[in-house]
Write the structure tokens for this entry.
Amino acid sequence: MRRIESLNLFEKESYEKGIWNPKYEKYIEYLRAWEAICKGGSLGGPIGELELSDRFRWLSACKSTVLQCSKTHPGLCTDPEKELEDLFKRYVL
């Protein structure tokens, strides 16, 4: 939920600072749809009603869409601590 709280904060601050762009609404709509799919259930549409493993595969699939996620790390490595540090540097910093 932390990311969604950040999304709400982004919306609020954009309005307050006068930098809101109507184009943002479409992206926020996409992000909210992803949230609904992640949570599962009918609010996520047909994909939201799939089993958790199927929803994960759908969300993490490489596809040409507005929202693109990075490749999913398989989690297999010889030095997990170093791998986590490398991933953090590559995708966060």
The chain has a mean pLDDT of 80. DSSP finds five helices and no strands in the chain. The first helix runs from residue 2 to 17.
